[in-house]
Write a structure and sequence with these properties.
Distance between the termini: 33 Å
Number of strands: 9
CATH superfamily: PPM-type phosphatase domain
Number of helices: 3
Strand content: 25-35%
Shape: globular
Helix content: 10-25%
Low-confidence stretches: none
């Protein structure tokens, strides 16, 4: 990031009575205009957090029409252990499922091409059951996509984020990594 400019990458984490809303937002381009777009998207999400994920993306799309736009992956974690998501653009999302024997399998969050505020693809929310100790990692395009290849998801979330930033940051773009650990009824 250049001196005097803001990061265009942002996040929202909001605990709600009915679950938790989590988003990673990447304003298109760099600098203050990208940061402004990301801020508008974040403010839009936090002003109407009780809407479903598709409605929230549409609301952001309308709010961002006079900006550069953003790409975003939006997640909602329900207390029953399900995660619902919508992804537009290139925010990477990886889910590590950890079974009781310690084996791990991964899923990737499905993304649809487009830019919220300019070119919105057909939206469809996807859902996936989560179990305690499952870990979800979201990363903007300032992180090389192979970040999940050598990852040990059992580490603490902050240590995982720090490791990804240290090893996989491109250095030519803003970068953000958000790690969420499912705690069962406490997620």
């Amino acid at each position: 990031m250049m001196a005097g400019t803001e990061s265009g990458d942002s996040h929202v984490v909001r605990q709600l009575p009915e679950g938790a809303l989590v988003a990673v937002i990447d304003g298109v381009g760099h600098g203050n205009e990208a940061a402004d777009a990301a801020r508008i998207a974040g403010d839009t999400l936090t002003s109407s957090p009780h809407e479903d994920t598709v409605s929230l993306v549409w609301r952001c799309h309308e709010a961002l029409k006079d900006t550069r736009g953003v790409v975003m992956t939006l997640l909602f974690f329900s207390p029953g252990g399900a995660m619902t998501w919508v992804g537009v653009g290139n925010v990477e999302g990886v889910i590590f499922h950890c079974d009781p024997s310690g084996r791990t399998r991964t899923n990737h969050v499905v993304q649809r091409g487009g830019v919220i505020g300019h070119r919105l693809p057909p939206l469809r929310a996807e859902s996936l059951p989560l179990l305690p100790h499952d870990t979800v990692i979201l990363a903007t395009d300032g992180i090389r996509p192979e970040f999940s290849d050598q990852l040990v998801p059992g580490h603490e979330p902050q240590a995982i984020a720090d490791q990804i930033l240290a090893r996989y940051r491109k250095g030519t773009d803003d970068a953000l990594v958000l790690v969420v650990r499912c705690l069962g009824d406490q997620s």
